[in-house]
Amino acid sequence: MSESRLVLHATLAGGTNNQDRYVIGHGFAAVLDGATSVAGDRSHDPGWYAEQLAQAISETVPRAGALADAVTEAIRAVRDTHGLTPATTPTSTVALARWSDEVVETYVLGDSYVVVFHTDGTETIHTDSRLDVLGHDVGDVRLVTQGGLLA
């Protein structure tokens, strides 16, 4: 017998320019929080980027093995489809969960998080632990890549 799943999502009103997006599919859900390019370029809207990435994730998650691979493939697809470069591309966090009758998987990129509520009343919070190595002043960090976006 399959237990029911409840997917909760929320976003704060962003006025006329909300950069948050979410996507819910069969057995998965993701929340994305778009942000301006680390280079400060404003030629692409962060909300637009988060929307493109959400759409790509909705296509990659159902067929991917690992969730990290699904997100990597989605980022590459958006980059390649729109000819994006590191200096002009907005960024986005990703909080992603996929579930079946047997397992719940999560993947977090950036400073968003996933909360899994268990049937015994406990909860588990999943975060991107890679942020811990960056320290508290992430605004001063500039990532340099060779030949393209991190993905």
Automatic annotation (TrEMBL):
Alphabetized InterPro entries for the sequence: PPM-type-like_dom_sf, PPM-type_phosphatase-like_dom
Record's signal peptide: none
Pfam family name, one: PP2C_2
Domain PPM-type phosphatase residues, every copy: 13-122
Descriptive protein name: Protein phosphatase 2C domain-containing protein
Organism from which the protein derives: Promicromonospora kroppenstedtii
